[in-house]
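Final report, closing paragraph on structural work. Over the funding period we assembled a curated collection of sequence-structure pairs, and we close with a single example.
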Amino acid sequence: MTGCAFGDEPAELRHHPTGRDEHGRYLDPDLTLPACHDDHTFVHDDWRDLGIEAVERPLTFFDRVETRLRRLATNCRRMDPAGVNPFWTKLAAALVRWADEIARGTRRLDERDPGWRDDPGFYPDGPAR
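Its predicted structure, as stored:
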């Protein structure tokens, strides 16, 4: 394995930067980053602190994209902790902005049609409940 994507340490693990869904399955199983134990733990701490690690309800397609974007943003923030390469900070900000756009659209759907989440067509695994 190569070095940790977040620092200079040797990588011991493969980190899934978009995490797991409500069933415990990786959202993107083939999308991984090499990570040392400590940085892997720090990223998951970030997710817990932001309330984006645990998934409590079935995720619509929109929710899945929003979750991916928010989790990827935290990974990007950790890519350049010293601020040497501002690309990672700018990308993280863009990912959060895009996630916010999806969240606004989803809230609007909830307001206009509260029953839309009951439609199995909005879920990858069929019926929501």
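Residues 66 and 98 are 8 Å apart (CA to CA). The mean pLDDT is 93. We thank the funder for supporting this effort.
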